[in-house]
Amino acid sequence: MDLIKVNQSKCIKCGFCVNVCPLNVLCMGEDGPIAISPQSCMKCGQCVAICPRRAIDNIKTPLANQSVINDSLFINSETAEQFLRSRRSIRCYKNKAVPRDQLEKLVDIARFAPTASNRQDVSYIIVENKEIIKKATEITIEWMESEIKNSSSHYSFPYHVHAYRETGTDTILRDCPYLILATTPKDFKNGRENTMLSLDYLTLFATTFGLGTCWAGVFEMCAFAKDSPVLKLFNISDDKIITGAIMIGYPKYSYKRMVDRRPLDVTWI
What we know:
This protein is 33% helix and 15% strand. By secondary structure, it is of the alpha+beta class. Strand 2 (26-29) and strand 3 form a beta hairpin. The chain is elongated.
């Protein structure tokens, strides 16, 4: 089958679809756009999304599957600035269940983040079993202890181990009610970058449900280690690796102010 179909009665030969194609798959012919290298199409869907007349369809990203953009829903810059600046990393959570449909919506939004070469290679695991989350903390602490014995530990490991062993304080996963893991194919070099973009989408969208999130960076150190002991706990297949982890739940406290940052450092050239 041809990669694209063009409705010539609608096509005005504006060339928008040709101009936005990132891999020059299309060119403009006498009767409208044609695919000159269909094998190079990476399914980004931009040719279909840009057409002002709904004149082009792509079998890899069908017009029927694209949603119309509602311009009235765009937020102004002032609202956007407060939305972005007011997000905080949450480390104290209520013991309150989050509806499954909201958690699933979060990862559904995450999948729309950009990925290198449009690979769309990030998969997600939503961990709601509190015993498994507790076990993940315990495994991470044990891994840290072994790293300390081998003199190859991070400077923060003794602090986390002491907090857990001496006071029972979980500074690894913060007693979070939910944990969301991202995985990608083991052999894909851009897996971490793609994951970071997708989970950033998730953390921002989570605030619209009144949820708080925090990157589980300490846990990630263990998860990223060679032959990590947590891979078996989460039933990660041999062809995949964990590439990100986010703690999530309802915040125990409500922040009233937006924290400042270091002064802007920018150079114009």
